[in-house]
Amino acid sequence: MPKGEGKVVAQNKKAYHDFFIEETYEAGIVLQGTEIKSIRAGKVNLKDSYARIQNGEALLYSMHISPYEQGNRYNHDPLRTRKLLLHKREISKLIGETKEAGYALVPLKLYLKNGFCKVLVGLAKGKKNYDKRESLKQKEAKREIERAFRDRQKM
After folding, report:
1. Which Gene3D superfamilies match (predicted)?
2. What's the mean per-residue pLDDT of the chain?
3. Which H or E run contains 146?
């Protein structure tokens, strides 16, 4: 199965609006206790999350996984820092690229692939306001073209 494919549980659409995505990496994620059950139920939010590399490890910050309803005392902290599982060569490559100004690691998708939870992490460069407006114009123009084409097909 290709990278980024599987049952998508959560997407970070805001990341595509705020950043230019240069490269993507598929990473596993270390979970505790009932977190996977909450993820399978779709109780995940990637909106304000980000990733960093510290001490040779990739870590994911502020990803919100809601506590599992039937988890009682075995539930977890919803905003805890989670470790991402990447190959050593990928981590060393990311260390070099994130030290450049303007680059960040942003989670794009959380999905289930062959029974495992995966995160699609993107190496991203921040957009300026004029870039955001330009991408919105292009998106709107594409939508208008598709609408005109669809109307023409009906005739």
Report:
1. 2.40.280.10
2. 88
3. helix 129-154
Kindly tell me if the per-residue pLDDT of 118 is higher than 90.
Answer: yes
* Strand pairing class (103-113; 116-126): antiparallel
Coil vs helix vs strand at 147: helix
Whole-angstrom Cα distance, residue 79 to residue 151? 47
Q: In this structure, which long-range contacts are made by residues 81-84, counting pairs with CB atoms below 8 Å and at least 24 apart in sequence?
A: 82/29, 82/30, 82/31, 83/29, 83/30, 83/57, 83/58, 83/59, 84/27, 84/28, 84/29, 84/30, 84/51, 84/57, 84/58, 84/59, 84/60, 84/119, 84/121
End-to-end CA distance of the chain: 40
The verdict on pTM exceeding 0.90 is no
DSSP structure class, residue 62 = S
Measured in degrees and rounded to the nearest 5, phi and psi for residue 55 equal: 55, 35
Nearest CA among 49, 52, 63 for reference residue 94: 52
Average confidence (pLDDT) over 118-126: 91
- For 30, phi then psi, to 5°, come to -90, 120
